[in-house]
User: Fold these one by one.
Assistant:
Number 1:
Amino acid sequence: MKSHVKAIVIGGGVVGCSVLYHLARAGWTDIMLIERSELTSGSSWHAAGGFHTLNGDPNVAKLQAYTVQLYKEIEEISGQSCSLHLTGGVMMADTPERMDFLRLAHAKGRYLGMDTELITPSEAKAMFPLMDEKNFVGAMWDPVEGHLDPSGTTIAYSKAAKKLGAEIVLRNRVVDLTQQPDGTWNVVTEQGTVHAEHVVNCGGLWAREIGRMVGVELPVLAMEHMYLLTEPMPEVEEFNKSTGREMIGVLDFKGEIYTRQERNGILLGTYEKACKPWSPVNTPWDFGHELLQPDIDRIAPSLEIGFKHFPGIEKAGIKQIINGPFTFALDGNPLVGPVQGLTNFWCACAVMAGFSQGGGVGLALSNWMVHGDPGFDVWGMDVARFGEWAGLRYTNAKVRENYSRRFSIRFPNEELPAGRPLKTTPVYDTLAAKGAQWGVSYGLEVPLWYAPEGVKDEFSWRRSTDFEHVGKEVAAVRNGVGLSEISNFAKYKVTGEGAAAWLDRMLACRLPKRGRMTLTPMLKDDGRLIGDFTLANIDDAEWFIAGSGIAEQYHMRWFEAHLPKDDSVQIEALGQKLTGLAIAGPKAREVLAKVTRADVSNAAFPFMAVARMDIGMAPCLVGRVSYTGDLGYEIWVAPEYQRAAYHALTAAGAEFGIGLFGSRALNALRLEKNYGSWGREYRPIYGPLEAGLDRFVAYGKEADFIGKAAALAERKQGGKLRLRAFIVDADDADVIGDEPIWFGGAVRGWVTSGGYAHHSKKSVAIGYVPKEIADESDGFEIELLGKRLAARIQAAPLFDVNFERMRG
Ligand SMILES: Cc1cc2nc3c(=O)[nH]c(=O)nc-3n(C[C@H](O)[C@H](O)[C@H](O)COP(=O)(O)OP(=O)(O)OC[C@H]3O[C@@H](n4cnc5c(N)ncnc54)[C@H](O)[C@@H]3O)c2cc1C
């Protein structure tokens, strides 16, 4: 064993071996994988070996497609077969709602370049004759599905990596990790200590324990999972003989079941409702190549549905039930990337579908380590998408919820209840008493809308029970004044003698003068977006940044990685140490004027001004800006004063009929201003010109801000895409995001978000199209729930075109 290497990968499951292979392929050959036992000694060896490309997150789906394509490459390099069976598979819908889900998935697949097809139950039965097609209303066929040999595949990755120069050390547990002052690591193993510049946690079932070695509690939990294997079945052999083909894979939403041919019989696995965490607190280090005790009672309800839907299987004898543990994060997607607060400590864990995702995870992580950027949009699996709120118990509740509804539909207006409420603000009870319907954002309860007594969300792909009430909230803002809670923003305080110079380098904007704010993109070295913020210069010594709440850790990781080493700049993520309220609408200034002694006239406190002032008795920081696009103010207040500020504002607003509005109304309001947001329109795959944020980039400023050269090049070359707002001829449903945009009979773009703009009475979609067609006003169609709806570009905002309301 070497004593020093560039990188150590801990764990020899399919994910560790893939990371090792990709690092070696990217040119880092001075690398070592350390495995506690033999390769595949975690969950990898007893996997069912199924793979597919579909994923709720389109970017994760792309990486899954890459994984499947990769198997030929590693077979060739390693000389080891993965026993690939590319059979294709179907997803079976048993209700019209599930069929709508498949229509949306099929449409999404179009712009991802996937070759899916909507088919009838009888067509599905022709490929899997063991089903009773009368149980279903339709299906979706995906040719890129199949199964493989899990151990063979893991070995193939490892052999390919070794051929490229990587070292693999077996039967050697990593027992501790200690960081050196220079940011490198001492990796303490049973066979001695190895020094490494980088460490990658691919510990699978033990990833949480490896996290604890460096003081991090990763939100990952292992769950027991069962699948059964039948005795050989004459029907299967007969089908193979008569068609010359293997039976396909089938996914049945109703039973949370997957099934496929395995040798001459059938494999059937379940994601049962009464699911069971394995090792909820500590994973035993002596767990090896053993299986867990099957518990047929637990999966009986799923099997009952399975045998009804697939009567051909019921008749077969069960040869074996496999019960093994594997890991999940809260939302079922992996945890990948550098861990915030640590140097050179990387994660590739919670990969619940290692044979669909392992290749893509390895590629993204190796890009990130070698080139400083994952090279794709990996937000859907970024370890930074969960904060400290995702602790052990919360993770347990959420993973169980996710597991038990693995194949369930989640409607766009559906909020999942497990582990809630966790984080709340001081006005939570007050807003709840007013009918607030809650969603959750980065662990925090946020009001979505306000329901009258007895009304609640009916989950649907279409406009639902909230529609008219959200319309009323919008009207309150546009016609008078509305109040909303905005504590879910991320808030950062920047101080120190070097603060201004540092911000000038980090952010693409021109720095605002004292008492002023500006909107600003933040760019990566390649000139693409890594953030969009409001920056406020409070008094030249203290700066305040507000940004996307879900990206707090993501952005802190970036900020910290770029802080000067001399302590001349301090940045703090304020989290819920600072809460927020906003008022907006033509009467907003009058309300504010009633509760503060400060002069808030347009002359004294114009658009984009910022100042500290009392609201009632509560000391606040107030910025004149509003995401509603109306006259409005964002009010930042310490939590102990939030209720006082709230009561002062609502009392002052009573004479103007102040109404509460939630995030759904805010969405309706911002759509008619063509405003985008982080995570939807603004993501790290778009340049500022493409995203329409170039007007906030100070291309000519003196400071050499990060990404400047690339941004200038984008401006010169024009980029590839343009963000556009569309008016859609929608009927009873509005886009939610990820719908394809058609032009000239082909899919040319995709929707990033949208909804109904109640004030303008228009269904709006925002999305990207190639720049060549971005100035065509007509001829677009947006595919929604199986229909192609006419859409036209709406270049000017629908509301307040001349900014008279916002700036007046
Ligand atoms: C019953 C069952 C069916 C499944 N079916 C499928 C399927 O059909 N398709 C699919 O894609 N996935 C399936 N999976 C999931 C799949 O097995 C996992 O996604 C995959 O195994 C994850 O691989 P990994 O490398 O992250 O973790 P693991 O396989 O758990 O590997 C982690 C490795 O790290 C080693 N390690 C841990 N700590 C240390 C340490 N301190 N020092 C040294 N070594 C250490 C362990 O010994 C282990 O070998 C299934 C899982 C189960 C249990």
Number 2:
Amino acid sequence: MATVREASYELLRNRGMTTMFGNPGSTELPFLADFPGDFNYVLGLQEAVVVGMADGFAQASGRPTVVNLHTAPGVGNAMGAIFNAQANKAPLVLTAGNQVRAMITLQANLTNRDAIRMPHPLVKWAYEPARAEDVPLALAHACATASLPPQGPVFLSVPMDDWDVEADESAARFAIERSVAGRAAADLQVVEKLGARLANAERPVMVAGPDVDASGAWDVAVALAERQRLPVWASPAPGGGRIGFPEGHPLFQGILPPAIGPVSEVLAGHDFVLVAGASVFAYYPYIPGPLLPDGTSLVVITNDPDEAARAPMGDAIVADVRLTLDLLVDNVPESDRQPPEPLPAPEPAPASNPMSPSAAVATLAEVFPTDGIVVLESPSATLALRNQMRLSKPGSYFFGAGGGLGFGLSSSVGVQLAQPDRPVVCVVGEGSAQYAITTFWTAVAYSVPVTFLVLRNSEYAILKWFAALEQVDGAPGLDLPALDCVATAASYGVESRHVTEHDDLVEALSEALGSNAPSLVQVEVAPGMALA
Ligand SMILES: Cc1ncc(C[n+]2csc(CCOP(=O)(O)OP(=O)(O)O)c2C)c(N)n1
């Protein structure tokens, strides 16, 4: 007879979920007993890092991913990263231990007494099974819910004495073997109407968002834009965890600004806006104005009913982005519209000392491998990186859509583990790096060859920019003198170098990219926001 633990591992194995990320405590050890040889346990040294790594892994592998958190305090540490995972639509099956059932009611030490309530509202589902025998079914439920659209984190609390209990063999077998498929295309009639609206529009435009990439719709988005000669904008950068359209394509026009009035200004002159795979829109800061220009209508295709419902304007089709675009492209004619003028090539950044953030990311572009992946968390250089690099391959860009720092460093390790054949470069501000600094330990311990490029400007540049926008004078705490990521990373065993000159940066990055170990390059950059 199998135990609940054995049945649970078989269930995960059956779903291909054999890499898990965790930071265990005494309440999780019974789950980890006799850890099966075909599973990988990736240890993170703090729970926010654990969840960030799993987030990157889940997104880059397209698979639900198990996370093993310590009871209440571990879940507490993880909350910011769970917030990010929800914004990223990362299918995480978060598990945490709890006290033995006999001591939950009397609230023994480490009891997570309100386990189900704790991770709300950041998870799609939270549960603690009523009986130990129900753990496999609850785990199957968790895996299905995390994977169904919109994907996202779920939470399962398991009292520590459940794992050795004998499983209900028949129930466990059904739980192990069942599968739940959830990608649904839109009704053909709805797509035909959308096709007619698009084809009959005079000056339509497309906005491509993160779920184009996540749903594998990259090629069909390009085919649709080419067929209909659509100018294409990327959805606003703050909420855009992934890129939905090749940014070097002649139809690509740039990134929509993340504010109400400015979006409307950019879209002026277009009578129809097709948004694919993005929320409408991830605005911040608040710059009021009309939501759309006069005479402009909008349709969004999203797999997320909440995204559809909460959009402040336009119509929505709730369906899988890829399947819907596949249908749509077959339901529009080849257009003879005049294609838009292509976006001019990026201006070379003028030389300065220290170099500008734009010059630093332009230098990265010089040596960036064609199959490379960027994980980005350098707030004041986000737009400069997008503009200078113009990433143009699917699955090449990951950014924390939630905005909680710590995603960058940690998720880059997960992305690299999921994509071992593609070089991963994590571009990170020295301030942001601190939120997940122990990631370096995991990168070394598991030989994960991420190249970390730290842009050091000795300040919270983005906050100074926000302070000016918000007309806030005299705010404390916006300078960061003397943070040395080279020394910190080196103390964890990461090969690390500080550079100031272009040629040294080229050499350091080329070396790091060629190495099969994690490496860090810290480059001194000028303070301030880099917009292009
Ligand atoms: C968890 C969390 N805490 C605080 C913030 C607020 N915040 C946003 S950007 C930023 C500064 C980031 O500094 P750095 O990485 O050096 O980048 P720079 O702004 O200089 O480009 C801070 C503190 C946040 N986004 N997330």
